[in-house]
Amino acid sequence: MKPWEYGTLRVSDNQRYLCNGDQPFFWLGDTAWLLFQQCSIEESYRYLKNRADKGFTVIQAVLLHEVGGKTESSLADAGGDVTKKEFWEHCDQVIKMAENLGLYMGLLPAWGAVVKHGILNTDNVNEYVHFIAERYKNSPNVIWILGGDIRGDVNPEFYQMEGRLLKELTPNKLIGYHPFGRCSSSMWFHNEPWLDFNMFQSGHRRYDQASLGAWDDNAIKEGFFGEDNWRYVDRDLGYLPKKPTVDGEPSYEWILQGLHVVTEPYWREWDVRRYAYWSVFEGSMGHTYGDNAIQQFYNDLTKKGAYGVREVWQEALHHAGSGQMGIMRRLMESVDYQNGRPAEELLLSGQKERYERIAVFAGADYVFAYDYLGGEFTLDLKPYSGKKLSAWWFDPADGVYSYLGDFTEKEQVCVKPINKQREDNDWVLVIKAE
After folding, report:
1. Which residue, 355, 344, 425, is CA-closest to 208?
2. Residue 76 binned pLDDT confidence (cut-offs 50, 70, 90)
3. Are 152 and 187 in contact (CB under 8 A)?
4. Using an 8 Å Cβ cutoff, are 346 and 360 in contact?
5. What pLDDT is stored for residue 69 in this prediction?
6. What is the pLDDT of residues 214-233, one digit of tens each?
7. What strands, in cross-sheet order, belong to the sheet with 198-201?
8. What is the 3-state secondary structure (H, E, C) of 64-93?
9. 352/332 Cα distance (integer angstroms)
10. Residue 56 confidence (pLDDT) above 50
11. What is the mean pLDDT of residues 369-384?
12. Long-range own/partner contacts, residues 67-70 (CB < 8 A, 24 or more apart)
């Protein structure tokens, strides 16, 4: 069944997750920002089918990325001109295609630069929002995502108007906001009735790549979490009223660390796994993956792409990290994750910093512990006394469970995974009550 066949997408009763009716919905997003501008119908199907098969549930794409002319690479079917009806008919086809594949479209009405430069503004927002709301009000697979790599304090009046109008005209659709790097929508719009969930962009920088106060970075008072994307989850879930949150743009697979310096190394599949498990085990409603070539749909090796891109998107479709996101989703859906919680208090060996962090997530009959470096740690199992417990090492790279032993009646366990003898050595300890 397609997810909306269980019911309209809504915030769960505990205000921390999403569900269709009473069916839990795990947000597994992909950043396909230029899908409508760069891909033909045939190419769109190739991309969407690949993502649906891998277990993605939400495709994040931009309707207006540039206005008044063609985008950098002409759209084969519509010329890339958003002023023409052919462009919107193309969008209709792609959104319907996603619907047939069971995928939600996280639609950004416009990229932030379109608003920043005044092309969309408070004078014409009413007309534009009525246009897209009327066009997609009956599409069951649309989620609105305002913003688009922009701080909410750049044009707050515009986004307030846009959010209120979309909620009024399409009350059955959820609304989020995609902010600038190292920011969260909660910084500006958390208390707004039109904002159903928070979204943050943990961004593409390492721990040591910060210039607080610079034009492209946080103010000192806003802080800098570096690669600790779980801290955004912790902060967002601490606000009232409670709202779900998700990392809408972490470091992409095969993008330069820090984005701009070509001598820097690339983020790899084990890095994107770390971002995913850290945020989900901290209580996020899911996770968004990204790939450098796919987010821009780079398709011509003879032309310079952005951020050190090295492959065309058709090859990047098969990068390892994209398949490993579905593995994480299946692990979470194997338990009642929406009634689970981050459970660092079970870590008797004490929490460590940065890459040595052990992320613990637990429910009434399970414990998950993500260990990025494969180090030793000790868990408290007294809360599970009287239950028959079995344990496995779970490899997030291939989804294989390797039985570890019977943990029944153990008050605590000290574990250390084996070394994979390769560049990555992350593991999940899975303990379940039978």
Report:
1. 355
2. very low
3. yes
4. yes
5. 43
6. 777 777 778 789 899 999 99
7. 183-184, 198-201, 245-247
8. ECCCCCCCCCCCCCCCCCCCCHHHHHHHHH
9. 24
10. yes
11. 95
12. 67/110, 67/114, 67/119, 67/120, 68/119
**DSSP-derived secondary structure for 111-169:** -HHHHHTTSS-TTTHHHHHHHHHHHHTT-TTEEEEEESS--TTTSHHHHHHHHHHHHHH
Tokens matching residue 364: 């009434």
DSSP secondary structure code for residue 286 in this structure: E
Find, among 164, 174, 170, 236, the residue nearest to 25 by Cα: 174
Q: How many CB atoms sit inside 10 A of residue 54's CB? A: 19
141 contact partners, CB below 8 Å, separation of at least 6: 2, 4, 95, 98, 99, 103, 104, 105
Tell me which residue of 131, 177, 133 sits closest to 155, measured CA to CA: 177
Give Cα separations from 288 to 1, 28, 42, 57, 295 (angstroms): 22, 6, 24, 10, 12
DSSP string, 365-402: TEEEEEESS---EEEE-GGGTTS-EEEEEE-TTT--EE
Read off the pTM.
0.93
The CA distance from 332 to 262, in Å, is: 36
The residue among 256, 297, 233, 261 whose CA lies nearest residue 73 is: 297
Could you read off the pLDDT of 231-277 as tens digits, one per residue?
A: 999 999 999 999 999 999 999 999 999 988 899 999 999 999 999 99
